[in-house]
Design brief:
Helices cover 46% and strands 14% of the residues. The protein has 24 helices and 19 strands. The strands form five sheets. The protein has an eight-stranded mixed sheet, with helices on both faces. The chain crosses the membrane at residues 53-72.
């Protein structure tokens, strides 16, 4: 991508011209300097009367300067090129010899003429390489209609699309649109998209102009429709995300944003008949990738029963998306945590296959008790570098889509060759993800064009947040992604119903599902411990253990751990369903006895039953979920009360 520095202000043309003319003046300055040097040498001869001494001094000085200058120019051979280097050395040698000769024979018009002939002859190549820019006011602009430019530059013998015919040019908002008939049996749409660069030069387009090439909507496939936008209105508008309405339950697709020509919207397919789809997003920091991903998830969650799982390659902080970290059903911040999550999801999928067999079900339709399962993996390259994760995800996408499992993977890695990992399953993983959807935003990598076999280079995308293209373009048009505002991110997720797994599927997932919230608590506790150590001047590397151990093992004061654990939100079953019957253990009963005996504060109950804070809050949450206890307040003001259901046990 070529970057130009634009000089603004009332004197911009003058300054730009001064820079251009300085290059053009260089040969004149060199010749003039030599003439002045020769004049100075002749003056020295007249003043001293010793022509031989002055000539020897001039010759020696000229020789030294010539040798040094030639050495410098030769070292810059890669910069100047071999021809320019040879001409420069020739000019330096000529200048040294001419100056020495004139010192001896005298300065005359003939001598100056010889210098100008040799000097300007050698400077012709320099001037060809440094032409004067005529400026916008003088630059010749091709004002012919695009159909005429197509005929002259693209359709003639030996051109990119020989024999094609452009016709029916009409103005559209921000540009023009016309029809092209390709040569049947010899040319197709892929031929045109593959020659996009030649088409742009043939039509005389600027770097900022948009070119849209697509099948003609009403003619046979030998006809294409070409749209040129010199000022796409969509790119100048603030396209605020419309909210959950972006999802169309009839089509099962999410509108990502309007195409640059204003003709329709780019669509992300999620649900179709008996199936669910994921996809892949890639974009540099600031390209709008994360907000687009969040918009997709919120649109689906608001409209269709869907449980969201989130893995963040940035680690346990979940820094990639605070929205998904705080509202997903299950979060993973390390490779081992993701392995545990995938193992559980694998068991849920197997249980669904059994249900299909036993209940004579066909395909998948999202319901409250069998929601769609969408796993979002941000900074996916950090997970897919592990061969086992790469292989597992690729197989799960392929095998479990029919029972409601999909993966949305995203990365901002500039090296797309490793975004899908480098193992044997890399191609399978890429193919599985792109079978659903693919979005490419601006990114500083040339590899993406080759890896995804794109007819465009994302490095050339304008620096506009949300500007993107679909990998498998149905229209061949870029689009401007909706902008999810900070206010929407702050308020809307709280209004949505984020589902958990139903009790039967939670049981199929295994114990890790019940402990999933403790992972987050443990990460907070460890972060707090590290902060306290830093404040005390103790610097230790952060822990990397993936195990879900009790939070008290971190060494954080028990009362702090207790406050953290109070924020844990355990599964809330859909309203139409009841949790399974709780098999009361001895620990459950001891807690009920203590509360029924008048001990209401958490620390008093823990002391009475002899349980640690982690185990106590887990059991207390289960008793709350099953109607044995109620809880009011928080922190030191927290109080537990036994319900009638608990009292009936004692009776």
């Amino acid at each position: 991508m070529t970057t130009k520095t634009v000089v603004s202000g009332p004197d911009a043309p003058t300054r730009a011209r001064r820079v251009d003319l300085s290059a053009q003046r260089a040969p004149h300055v060199a010749v003039g300097a030599l003439v002045l040097a020769a004049g100075a040498a002749r003056t020295a001869v007249h003043l001293t009367g010793d022509e031989a001494t002055v000539a020897q001094f001039v010759a020696g000085t000229a020789f030294v300067v010539a040798v040094v200058a030639a050495a410098v120019v030769s070292r810059k051979r890669r910069v100047f090129g071999p021809k320019a280097t040879a001409r420069a050395v020739a000019f330096i040698a000529t200048a040294a010899g001419w100056l020495t000769g004139v010192t001896v024979t005298g300065l005359s018009l003939g001598a100056v003429g010889i210098l100008m002939a040799f000097g300007y002859g050698l400077a012709l190549h320099w001037w060809r390489e440094h032409r004067i820019d005529p400026g916008p006011a003088r630059r010749k602009v091709d004002e012919r209609p695009y159909v005429q430019r197509w005929k002259a530059n693209l359709a003639g013998p030996g051109a990119a699309l020989t024999g094609s015919v452009a016709m029916d040019e009409k103005p559209v908002e921000g540009g023009a649109r016309f029809t092209v008939q390709l040569v049947p049996g010899k040319q197709e749409l892929a031929t045109v998209t593959g020659a996009a660069g030649k088409i742009r030069t043939g039509l005389g387009l600027r770097a900022t102009d948009e070119l849209v090439v697509e099948h003609h909507p009403s003619r046979d496939q030998s006809y294409i429709r070409v749209t040129v936008l010199e000022a796409a209105p969509v790119l100048k508008r603030d396209n605020v995300w419309p909210g959950p309405e972006a999802y169309n339950p009839t089509t099962g697709k999410v509108a990502l944003g309007p195409h640059v020509d204003g003709d329709g919207y780019a669509q992300w397919r999620v649900y179709s008949s008996n199936s669910i789809w994921g996809g892949f997003l890639v974009g540099a920091q600031g390209s709008g990738k994360t907000r687009m991903m969040e918009g997709i998830v919120m649109s689906v969650v608001a409209s269709t029963p869907t449980a969201v799982f989130f893995a963040d390659g940035h680690g346990e902080t979940g820094a990639s998306s605070k929205l998904l970290r705080d509202h997903c059903d299950y979060f993973a911040g390390t490779a081992d945590q993701l392995r545990t999550m995938l193992a559980g999801l694998h068991l849920v999928a197997e249980a669904r296959f059994d249900d299909m067999l036993l209940d004579d079900l066909e395909g998948f339709t999202a319901t409250e008790d069998r929601p769609g399962l969408i796993l979002v993996i941000d900074e996916c390259h950090k997970f897919f570098e592990h061969d086992d994760i790469q292989y597992t995800v690729a197989n799960m996408i392929t095998e479990f889509r029919k029972v409601g499992f999909a993966v949305i993977a995203a990365t901002q890695s500039a090296n797309l060759n490793r975004a899908f990992g480098t193992g044997d399953a890399a191609d399978a993983l890429r193919g599985a993800l792109l079978t659903g959807n693919g979005v490419v935003l601006r990114i500083k990598s040339g590899s993406i064009k080759d890896v995804l076999k794109l007819p465009y280079d994302p490095r050339d995308f304008p620096d506009i947040p949300g500007y993107a293209r679909m990998v498998d373009e149905s229209r061949g048009a870029a689009f401007r992604g909706f902008r999810v505002t900070d206010e929407q991110v702050e308020t809307l997720p709280k209004q949505l119903r984020w589902l958990s797994l139903s009790p039967p599927e939670a049981a199929a997932f295994g114990p890790a599902y019940d402990e999933r919230k403790l992972v987050r608590v443990k990460a907070k506790a460890e972060a707090l411990k590290r902060r306290q150590q830093r404040q005390a001047g103790i610097h230790t590397p952060p822990p990397v253990s993936p195990s879900v151990a009790a939070a008290t093992a971190t060494g954080v004061p028990p009362q702090v751990v207790a406050e953290l654990l109070e924020d844990v939100v355990f599964p809330v079953w859909p309203g139409s369903m009841e949790p399974p019957t709780l098999d009361l253990s001895d620990s459950h009963r001891r807690i009920l006895d203590a509360v029924g005996g008048g001990r209401q504060q958490p620390k008093d109950v823990m002391e009475a039953v002899g349980l640690g804070s982690s185990r106590f809050y887990q059991l207390a949450s289960e008793l709350q979920a099953h109607g044995y206890l109620t809880k009011t307040g928080k922190g030191p003001a927290a109080r537990y009360t036994a319900t009638e259901k608990a009292h009936s046990l004692a009776a």
